[in-house]
Amino acid sequence: MVVVLLLAQAPVVGQAPSPTAKAPTAGKVWTPPRTPGGEPDLQGIWGNGTLTPFERPKGLGTKEFYTDQEFAELARRVRQGDVGEEGNLGAAAGQTLRYDLSLYGFDLTKARFASNKRTSLIVGPDGVVPPMLPEAIKRNADRAAKNKGHEFDGYENRPLQERCILMGQERLPMIPPVNDNNLLQITQAPGSVAMLHETNHHTRVIPTDGRPHISQNIRQWQGDSVGRWEGNTLVVDTTNFTALTANFRGSSEKLHLVERFTRVSDDTIIYQFTVEDP
After folding, report:
1. pTM of the model
2. CA distance 168 to 42
């Protein structure tokens, strides 16, 4: 399963945000900036608020893109709080009334979205997550049954989010949350790339110095990530997940994640990821 998402550079305080971030016009050559070490410069503060649903809404069939008119109408309805059959639209999802929306930048009439005209973030004819295999359904059911009646026995029975171990976009892959906590700061140094998440202030450090993955005997909350550069794209390969984490869509500790970060303009990064769970 392949997913494509745009990351839009977040405006500085006091700067009026534009409605959406746009990739360069087809055929227009854009040269990405470079770090002193010669690598593509991905540094900055980025946001992935989007109008595009993760899975394609029912009724659209194999339609992969909205027309300009359809997308404009979708954007208009979302900014008015009417998501219709599109349902949960990432940053446009319903917001619990706990913030002053204007003060914190969540006013949908002014928010900056990293959107395109795709009908779903998932790429493919169906635009939906493939159905779960029978063994995966059984594994997750067994796990839930084992914990039933013991939810409050100890901290180890509580969800990781409640324990502030993994929250929101800290989980991999980075799927857009609701309006809040969708910012990501990227910094680079020789041999590594660091990503600081707004949620929980978690920093993910990705080595790019050619080192191999750690031993398969070692399992980590977010797995083990190693990166490499393919032209202007940062490719991040992650394995070594743990069964203690509620992995992507109920996947197992054998989950294999490949992410691609490609800066295509001054204010846009294309984020793609592929997930496999053999």
Report:
1. 0.80
2. 22
Distance of CA 104 to the CA centre of its chain: 21
Q: For residue 173, say if its preceding peptide bond is cis, omega within 30 degrees of 0.
A: yes
143 three-class SS: helix
Backbone angles phi, psi at 144, to 5 degrees: -65, -40
What beta strand segments (E) does 93-223 contain? 122-123, 183-189, 192-197, 203-207
In this predicted model, which residue has the larger pLDDT, 31 or 105? 31
Q: What angle do CA 176, 135, 143 make, to 5 degrees?
A: 70
| Contact indicator for 232, 32 with CB cutoff of 8 Å | yes
d(CA 194, CA 182): 16
Q: What is the mean pLDDT of the chain?
A: 80
Contact indicator for 5, 114 with CB cutoff of 8 Å: yes
Q: What is the mean pLDDT of residues 164-173?
A: 75
- Taking only the tens place, the pLDDT of each residue in 223-235 is 999 999 999 999 9
User: Is 192:247 a contact under the CB 8 Å cutoff?
Assistant: no
Residue 224 CB partners (closer than 8 Å, separation 6+): 213, 214, 218, 238, 239, 240
Annotate 61-93 with DSSP letters as a single string: TT--B--HHHHHHHHHHHHTT--GGG---GGGS
Structure tokens belonging to residue 42: 């991905």
In this predicted model, what pLDDT tens digit does every residue of 245-258 receive, in sequence order? 767 777 888 999 99
What was the pLDDT predicted at 91?
A: 42
